[in-house]
Every structure is written in structure tokens, then in C-alpha cells.
Amino acid sequence: MRGSILISGGKEYNKNYVDAITKSSGNAIYEYCPKYKEKYIGLVLAGGYDMDPVFYRQNNHASKGIDIKRDEAELLLLDQFVHAQKPVLGICRGHQTINVYFGGDLIQDIYTKSIHQKEGDAIHKTITKKDSVLYRLYGTEFATNSNHHQAIGKIGEGIDVTQYSNDGVIEAIEHSDLPIYGVQWHPERMCYDNLREDTVDSSKFMKWFVNLCNTAGESYQRM
Question: Is NADP a UniProt keyword of this protein (predicted)?
Fold first, then answer.
């Protein structure tokens, strides 16, 4: 039996993340401030409110909705998955958390937020780096959704930037040595029942990540 992919999210259960994993042939478990367990074959760090800037050595001048309990739990959880070398996908807040974990920081309020945040999702074009996962799945240029007012600033150690928006905001990252990936956008709102005509179909990306986790999980079982 395949192991489970852990989704670490906010206090309120978010069905979109669970559906995106399960409809991509994965076993999903959604929890708030979860603990690491060996049975987990992958981790999704879900979106949510802002991280406390203390974790990236800044004073708070624009961060909102801080949940320090979640910040601490997810940084510890990420550390455990990093040391186990298991796949991780960070989405929006989770993408930013990955960068902070590796020593980077965040822009607390992006001046270009008019194209990145509105009621519902904003839609904008992005440019991907060749030889990245996203380039292999979707090519050089494609549209994504967006709903955020913060973004990656200083890039963390070992982090490669693989996608930008047209105004220079970092939209995706990959770790150079570990199976760790982050996207600033929300693939769980661009696939299956949430498929949109104005963005790419992100089910291809979600299936790729679930397959990565399942393949890695089979390797753990053989060890």
C-alpha cells in the first residue's frame, strides 16, 4: 500500500488541496501543525497568512495574520523532511517558508501587488527557466493564478529560481540537490473541478509531484 502525502495547512480544512492530491492518485492527509511520521512519503506546505518576519531577521512592517505556532511547526516539519530527503511542495506561503528555511528572506509587501492580488485570483503570465520541472511540463511561458502580497526576496542557500512573473516576482523555485519545490501560485485552484480556461491545467504538475512521492515511497519500503 502506498504511503500518505501530508498536507500542512491552516486551522480550517481546505478541500482543494486534498482533492488536488487524491485526484492525482495520491493518498492525502490534511492537518494543522502536524507531527512528522515515517509513513509520510511527501509533504505539501499549503498557503495561508504571513509568516512572522522574526524568522527571517526583519521587523514586522507589513505582515498580517501571523500564526507563530504554525510557523514553528512547519519549519520543524520541513527540517525533518529535508533530513529524510523526502519530496516537498510549497504552495504560496509554503513556497515562501521553504526559502526562509534555507536562509532567505521575504518582501513583506510587494509594490506590484496590483497584478498579483485582487478579489478571487489575479491571472498573469510567467516565464520559466529551461531544464526546470515547469519548463518540461508547460514550456517557456504560461499563465498562472495569483493571490499574495508578499514574495521571496533574498534567495536561500541551494535554491534555484525557475519561474518569474513579467514584473520580476519569483514564482517558482527548486532546490539544487533535494526534491524540494515551491510555487507562488495555487495549483490546487487550477485543476480538476477548479480547472480554468485562462491558466494552464495544473493537474499535470500535481500528478508529477504525486508520482515523485509515490516513487520515493516505494524506495523507502524497499530499504
Answer: no
Is 186 an active-site residue?
A: yes
Whether 213 is catalytic:
no
The single residue of 92, 116, 124, 175 carrying the catalytic annotation is: 92
Q: Can you tell me the distance from the alpha carbon of 123 to that of 86, in angstroms, rounded to the nearest whole number?
A: 31
**Whether residue 112 has pLDDT greater than 90:** no
What would the mean pLDDT of 200-207 be, rounded to a whole number? 98
Choose, from 74, 188, 191, 213, the residue flagged as catalytic.
188
Q: Which of 95, 116, 186, 213 is catalytic?
A: 186
- Verify whether residue 61 is a known catalytic residue: no
Quick one: pLDDT at residue 113? 59
Q: What is the dihedral of CA 159, 190, 29, 70, to 10 degrees?
A: 50
The count of residues in the chain is 223
pLDDT at 198: 97
Name the percent of the chain lying above pLDDT 90.
90
Domain count, the chain: 1
Number of helices (H), then strands (E), in the chain? 5, 11
